[in-house]
Design a protein that fits this description.
The protein is an alpha/beta fold. The chain has 14 helices and ten strands. Bound molecules: iron/sulfur cluster (SF4).
């Protein structure tokens, strides 16, 4: 049995249930790093070049925190996660594409890195081939890996179903993987609804965004994200734009934002954007222009390692006050 390390960031928020199920079905132990902390960020900042975006710095911190605890580090090269065509010829940002190389060159004493290329646009059978390759690195047979892949796919479908029902990823994982009960939440009938869009690792990591979702939840605001929308809905939004962007997560944020802007029950849109993110420079501008066109209040929150809770809280409170005032005036 091998101990396989999975960093608690980046693709973790959408694909952890799949890979945890897969590795455990093969008889291995999954070691996930703790949720992001100041120590993890500091470790990452120490190891990364200055101009990297904060998510990549944090990823390095998570890897550093796992190095002595695992036999393998799972750091696949994410190229595409969908069959070509639905979202155009999209891929992941260059930092994602080069992540295994960055980690290998940064951590020369790291355990072997499982850096299998994930490029699902190659065809419907590709995921199974990828699983067989990953399994073979851990000494598992093709048959074992195929069976584990099937099981992981089922769990992934259940996970997506929970997200589509409006459950946030951390809670959906607790329900699915640890048998937790769904939390019951009540919202005032005249309460606000806000769509929060952005990269999963920016929205769902409370350290990186200084607890933005909790701030909204405390105000009894109903929160929507792009991950609650089906691919069918996102694809419909994609078709309304003359051109898609190249990056998968960016496209999801844009299409999700565009969808919610047209909804009368959504009072405002918040875009959580990472400072020094090239793709986000376009995503943010596009969302801002479209929000203006749809007369939908829009707030952009930029995060980096110096982002402070009080600054974000002040902006959120002002935005929420403005939405309430607007609602009262209508
Ligand atoms: S999309 Fe932006 S925030 Fe995400 S890893 Fe790439 S550069 Fe960083």
């Amino acid at each position: 049995m091998a101990r396989v390390g999975i960093p608690h960031t980046l693709a973790y928020f959408l694909y952890y249930p799949f890979w945890k199920t897969f590795f455990e079905a093969l008889g291995h132990q999954v070691v996930v790093s703790s949720p992001t902390t100041r120590e993890i960020l500091d470790l990452g900042v120490e190891e990364t070049v200055n101009d990297a975006c904060i998510p990549i710095k944090i990823y390095h911190g998570h890897v550093a925190s796992l190095i002595d605890k695992v036999d393998y580090m799972f750091c696949p090269r994410l190229v595409s996660v969908r069959l070509h065509g639905d979202f155009g010829s999209e891929t992941f940002c260059p930092k994602f594409l080069g992540l295994p190389d960055l980690i290998r060159l940064t951590f020369t004493k790291a355990p072997p890195i499982i850096d299998t290329r994930i490029d699902l646009k190659k065809g419907k059978k590709e995921l199974e081939s990828i699983c067989v390759e990953v399994g073979s690195r851990l000494g598992n047979s093709s048959q074992e890996s195929q069976a584990a892949c099937k099981k992981a796919r089922q769990v992934h479908r259940q996970y997506l179903a929970l997200l589509r029902q409006g459950t946030m990823p951390p809670e959906a994982m607790e329900i699915l993987l640890n048998g937790a009960k769904p939390a019951s939440r009540e919202f005032p009938p005249d309460g606000l609804s806000i769509a929060v869009v952005g990269y999963p690792y920016a929205i769902y990591d409370p350290y990186i965004n200084v607890g933005l979702l909790n701030m909204l939840a405390r105000e009894k605001i109903k929160i929507y994200t792009q991950d609650m929308l089906s691919d069918k809905i996102l694809n419909r939004e994609a078709r309304e734009l003359p051109k898609s962007m190249f990056w998968y997560f960016s496209n999801r944020a844009v299409y999700g934002g565009l969808y919610y802007m047209k909804k009368a029950n959504i009072d405002g849109i918040i875009h959580v954007t990472a400072f020094a993110c090239g793709p986000d420079a376009m995503v943010d501008r596009l969302l801002e222009i479209e929000a203006r066109r749809h007369n939908k209040p829009y707030l952009s929150i930029s995060i980096d390692e110096h982002t402070g809770e009080s600054g974000v809280r002040t902006r959120i409170e002002a935005f929420v006050d403005m939405l309430r005032y607007r609602r009262d005036k209508a």
